[in-house]
Amino acid sequence: MSRTVSVRYAAGVVGESRRHAHLSVMPPDGVRPAAWPTYCGLEIPAHLAEVAHQPAGMPCFRCLSGFTSMTPELDTESTSAD
Asked: Tens of pLDDT along 52-78?
């Protein structure tokens, strides 16, 4: 089973303003990839990344937008007023 993880550049690799917490998917086998593909399209090389299994740091808003667009749509027919 794959799950979403938080991935960002490790301290000292880039400036603090670029260390956004991006969303990526841990492969089902648990083996870390050579590079972490993120929901916003960035690929962070594994040797430059730190991975957290819970939110950590300032979130990448593009990743959050991509994540929310992957969730099921709400049933708006039952809530719309005619």
From this structure: 877 778 899 998 886 665 544 444 444
- pTM of the full predicted structure? 0.73
Residues 59-79, buried b or exposed e (16+ Cβ, 10 A)?
bbebbeebeeeeeeeeeeeee
Note whether 27 and 42 are within 8 A (CB): no
Q: How far apart are CA 6 and CA 20, in angstroms?
A: 9
The residue whose two tokens read 């808003």 is: 61
| Joined tokens for residue 44 | 């962070």
Token pair in block for residue 71: 């969730």
At residue 20, φ and ψ (nearest 5 deg) are: -65, 150
